């Protein structure tokens, strides 16, 4: 079929929380029906054309249509900074904050009600119902769930999946039919999973991908009965030495377990699990907690360790891979020389030893000890090469981590071996600082799987490679948008952005298991390939029993076609989900990263989704489409309506969007400006927004709310630890009365990130403010203050701290219930203050998962919680307390 060429940038479906201009399109490409909007269905002729014309060379990004300069790695880093800023500004958070908060929440009185997961069913990213312009349906990923950071598997059919924010899951059937096994822990963020020689499962908490929404962990835990048991606080190894760190890898050798963490490399006996961890090496110990430079804003980046390679012939010989992915003087490989950890400066062969070219590193060794392999991401490449940050893949045929090492692949070679990433500006390894895994077939030292954005396989030790798991199938000749097929005539692939890998056996057959931004997938270890080198036998293991979906938002409206309610929400790297009242499978109507969400209470198929940086898109039919827009542009049913701050990049990565509580056709959006539009879901152009108020250069909105014509906007600027400032602006939807509220640093409202408003539906001057981060007890920074929930009865002029017995935990969102109660979303669950009361209680018993947004059902009787790691939950308001 013919496909109209469009001039718009290509945005990755899974770049952590980022998606940027990635392909320089052919000159003269015609704009599409949307006038050249900056994101869309990531396929079509423009990708094929860009792919065909790409020579694989390193070329500057030519992105005149891109407001952000087109560097996705920069966007991901910015997204990471912004997510962290909300929780750390105005200073640095000392270790133990989340642990103390979790203890405090568990000590609160709890309501008798129970949460119900409404997203615990398959989520089909290729749902044939939703093949509209802005969907990624037909890309080939199939059923997906939230990001998995680590995988482990044994030879008895047991598979373990560690999620970014939703805990560890176990399958007894080679993948699928999952059950959670870490819900009792205070951290549901996984950094590493590993099975030792006796079959014990080791869990390192705290995701270490340095991405936009990673959480610190509470240490390392061991599950002795991995087949049947569950993790508990009592199963923690050692003391609290690794609390509030991230753990990148766990490796075993010489009777020790080694942990590569954000605070250096540590070791512990594998036989005696009590006693403290030993700090083996920290390159900059003054920046560790308790050190003289611990409060320095750069402290979290000064002792990052990525992996440990242990010589299989002599476990006393160890190589540490240490360094910050963006580069630092301490980056490099280290080993012990006469009892002192010393940088290796030469003798490694092709593997670099200089600080500029050693970044994120992953090691893997063969079972027979004959070979070591490594992936190396280069800070210099990350900072200077727009195409890739990958330095290379290497092998040491000596079997020793000391080499000599030989390069066996670079990004150009991988791009030429069946990759979907062949266009300048986005080639294999462009996110090698975020995407890495490496494993060796236990029965064949030359059979290796490597994960970057895609999955690569070599069966000859790196002589030749195949892209067995391409990024997606868009752009390949076999692809078609035909809704009768998942992905045209292409074979199914995995979701992109690879993080974890394991090899195990089930019913006597060996499989490779991969974990990525879309969940878990498997294929036979020695599986089949087509003529392009793409695997023909991937199976998605995301059957709905594993729900690790990372929601930023939720929207609820009446399902006019089927009765009941339609539930939608924006997700990290998995677009926008749509759950109709009669669905057995959720669909995806928008691709990329889903930010804030609006849904018309009267019609749940009227949906507005904020992509990133205030790139708002809308649909009035749930984006139901059979793909016919490919040949007839008038058949498009989703539209980009971004206000101008999107084009100038003057908005937060996840920017606020809200409808007036009294008028669902009036919307407020926040970037540098506070914007209003009054056409509701009938809006068709970004030009229909009007600026109500300029918050000022360098300031961006962090929260907005409106009721009956009155508008509240919170902002920060600067938003980082260097001079952090925050404030509140108040005015009316007709543009009158706008002013900044006086909030000096020493005011009642702390100098921390202002994350949300909840307006009393009976009185627009009565409003509640939610404050993120931690109090001055944990935060080393000016004006950190105390408190997380504040109340104003005079339209925001004065505020009162009503935190009372609320534990010191970041708060994200709140709603006022019809009876005057107040429900608040925190990084560790939901709390509620009943009407007429001053004390808080915990709502139900969610795991230690971040709840980023709360919404009420159209009738006000049900509370919906968008969790960032465990899907969407509901509870009746009457059961909150």
Mind explaining what this structure looks like?
The protein is mainly beta and 881 residues long. Helix content is 6%, strand content 32%. It contains six helices and 58 strands. The strands form 15 sheets. It has a five-stranded mixed beta sheet with strand order 3-34-33-32-31, with no helix packed on it. Strands 2-58-57-56 form a four-stranded antiparallel beta sheet, with no helix packed on it. A hairpin with a 7-residue loop joins strand 6 (168-171) and strand 7 (179-180). Residues 1-73 have low confidence and may be disordered.
Major beta-sheet overview = 5 strands, mixed
| Neighbour order of strands in the largest sheet | 3-34-33-32-31
> What's the count of strands?
58
What is the overall shape?
A: globular
Overall helicity: under 10%
Notable features of this structure?
mainly beta; 5-stranded mixed sheet; 881 residues; single chain; 6% helix; 6 helices; 32% strand; disordered N terminus
What is the structure about, briefly put?
The chain has 881 residues and is mainly β.
Question: Would you spell out the secondary-structure blueprint of this structure?
Answer:
Layout: H1 44-53, H2 72-88, E1 92-93, H3 97-107, E2 116-117, E3 123-124, E4 148-153, E5 159-163, E6 168-171, E7 179-180, E8 190-195, E9 201-205, E10 220-223, E11 247-253, E12 256-261, E13 264-269, E14 278-281, E15 305-310, E16 318-322, E17 332-337, E18 340-343, E19 361-365, E20 372-377, H4 379-384, E21 390-396, E22 406-409, H5 411-415, E23 437-440, E24 448-451, E25 455-458, E26 466-469, E27 498-506, E28 509-516, E29 519-524, E30 539-540, E31 555-558, E32 565-570, E33 576-579, E34 586-590, E35 597-600, E36 603-610, E37 616-619, E38 638-640, H6 644-647, E39 657-660, E40 663-670, E41 673-677, E42 690-694, E43 700-707, E44 710-716, E45 726-732, E46 739-740, E47 754-759, E48 767-771, E49 779-780, E50 789-792, E51 800-801, E52 811-816, E53 822-826, E54 829-833, E55 841-842, E56 851-856, E57 862-867, E58 872-876
Parallel strand pairs: 3-34
Antiparallel strand pairs: 1-49, 2-58, 4-5, 5-6, 6-7, 8-9, 9-10, 11-12, 12-13, 13-14, 15-16, 16-17, 17-18, 19-20, 20-21, 21-22, 23-24, 24-25, 25-26, 27-28, 28-29, 29-30, 31-32, 32-33, 33-34, 35-36, 36-37, 37-38, 39-40, 40-41, 41-42, 43-44, 44-45, 45-46, 47-48, 48-50, 50-51, 52-53, 53-54, 54-55, ...
């Amino acid at each position: 079929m013919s496909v109209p060429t469009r001039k718009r940038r290509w945005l990755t479906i899974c770049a952590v929380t980022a998606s940027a201009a990635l392909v320089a399109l052919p000159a003269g490409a015609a704009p599409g029906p949307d006038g050249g909007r900056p994101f869309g269905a990531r396929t079509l002729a423009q990708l094929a054309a860009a792919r065909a014309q790409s020579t694989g060379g390193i070329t500057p990004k030519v992105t005149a249509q891109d407001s952000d300069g087109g560097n996705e790695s920069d966007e991901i880093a910015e997204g990471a900074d912004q997510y962290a800023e909300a929780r750390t500004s105005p200073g640095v958070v000392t270790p133990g904050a989340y642990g103390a908060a979790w203890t405090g929440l568990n000590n609160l009185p709890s309501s008798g009600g129970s949460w119900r997961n409404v997203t615990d069913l398959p989520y089909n990213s290729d749902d044939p119902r939703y093949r509209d312009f802005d969907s990624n349906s037909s890309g080939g990923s199939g059923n997906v769930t939230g990001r998995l950071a680590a995988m482990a598997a044994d030879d008895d059919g047991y598979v373990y999946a560690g999620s970014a924010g939703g805990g560890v899951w176990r399958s007894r059937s080679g993948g699928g039919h999952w059950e959670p096994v870490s819900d009792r822990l205070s951290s549901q963020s996984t950094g590493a999973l590993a099975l030792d020689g006796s079959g014990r499962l080791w869990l390192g908490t705290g995701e270490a991908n340095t991405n936009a929404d990673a959480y610190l962990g509470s240490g390392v835990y061991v599950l002795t009965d991995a087949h049947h048991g569950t993790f508990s606080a009592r199963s923690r190894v050692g003391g609290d030495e690794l609390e509030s760190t991230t753990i990148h890898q766990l490796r075993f050798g010489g009777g020790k377990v080694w942990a590569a963490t954000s605070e250096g490399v540590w070791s512990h006996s594998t036989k005696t699990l009590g006693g403290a961890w030993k700090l083996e090496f920290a390159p900059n110990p003054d920046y560790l907690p308790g050190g003289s430079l611990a409060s320095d804003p750069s402290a979290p980046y000064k002792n990052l360790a990525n992996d440990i390679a242990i010589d299989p012939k002599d476990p006393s010989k160890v190589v540490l891979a240490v360094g910050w992915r963006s580069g630092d003087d301490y980056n490099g490989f280290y080993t012990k020389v006469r009892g002192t950890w010393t940088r290796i400066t030469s003798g490694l062969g092709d593997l670099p030893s200089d600080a500029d070219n050693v970044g994120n590193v992953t090691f893997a060794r063969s079972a027979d000890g004959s070979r070591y392999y490594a992936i190396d991401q280069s800070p210099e490449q990350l900072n200077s090469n727009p195409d890739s940050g990958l330095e290379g893949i290497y092998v040491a045929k000596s079997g020793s981590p000391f080499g000599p090492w030989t390069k066996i692949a670079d990004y150009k070679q991988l791009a030429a071996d069946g990759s979907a990433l062949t266009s300048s500006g986005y080639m294999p390894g462009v996110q090698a600082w975020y995407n890495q895994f490496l494993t060796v077939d236990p029965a064949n030292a030359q059979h290796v799987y490597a994960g970057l954005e895609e999955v690569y396989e070599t069966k000859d030790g790196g002589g030749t490679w195949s892209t067995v798991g391409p990024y997606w199938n868009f752009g390949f000749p076999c692809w078609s948008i035909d809704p009768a097929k998942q992905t045209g005539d292409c074979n199914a692939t995995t979701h992109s952005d690879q993080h974890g890998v394991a090899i195990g056996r089930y019913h006597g057959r060996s499989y490779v298991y991969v974990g990525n931004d879309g969940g878990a997938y498997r294929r036979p270890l020695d599986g089949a390939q087509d003529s392009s080198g793409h695997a023909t036998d991937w199976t998605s293991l995301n059957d709905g029993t594993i729900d690790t979906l990372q929601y930023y938002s939720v929207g609820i409206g009446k399902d006019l076609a089927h009765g009941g309610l339609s539930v939608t929400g924006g997700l990290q790297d998995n677009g926008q989900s749509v759950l109709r009242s009669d669905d057995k499978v959720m669909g995806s109507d928008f691709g990329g990263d889903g930010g804030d969400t609006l849904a018309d209470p009267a019609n749940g198929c009227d949906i507005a989704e904020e992509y990133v940086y205030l790139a708002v898109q809308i649909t009035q039919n749930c984006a139901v489409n059979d793909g016919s827009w490919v040949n007839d542009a008038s058949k498009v049913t989703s539209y980009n309506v971004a206000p101008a701050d999107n084009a100038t990049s003057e908005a937060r990565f996840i920017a606020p969007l809200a409808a007036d509580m009294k008028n669902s056709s009036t919307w407020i959006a926040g970037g540098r400006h506070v914007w209003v539009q009054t056409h509701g879901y009938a809006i068709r152009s970004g030009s229909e927004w009007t600026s109500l108020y300029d918050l000022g250069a360098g300031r961006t909105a962090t929260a907005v709310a409106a009721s009956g014509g009155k508008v509240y906007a919170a902002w920060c600027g600067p938003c980082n630890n260097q001079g952090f400032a925050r404030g509140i602006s108040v005015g009316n939807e007709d543009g009158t009365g706008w002013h900044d509220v006086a909030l000096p640093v020493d005011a009642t409202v702390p100098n921390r990130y202002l994350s949300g408003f909840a307006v009393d539906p009976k009185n627009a001057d009565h409003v509640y403010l939610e404050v993120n981060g931690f109090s001055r007890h944990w935060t080393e920074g000016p004006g950190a203050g105390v408190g997380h929930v504040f109340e104003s009865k005079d339209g925001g002029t004065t505020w009162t701290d009503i935190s009372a017995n609320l534990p010191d935990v970041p708060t994200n969102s709140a709603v006022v219930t019809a009876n005057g109660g107040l429900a608040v979303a925190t990084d560790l669950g939901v709390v509620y203050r009943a009407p007429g009361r001053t004390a808080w209680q915990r709502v139900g018993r969610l795991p230690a998962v971040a709840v980023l947004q709360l919404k009420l059902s159209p009738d006000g009787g049900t509370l919906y919680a968008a969790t960032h790691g465990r899907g969407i939950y509901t509870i009746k308001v009457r059961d909150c307390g």
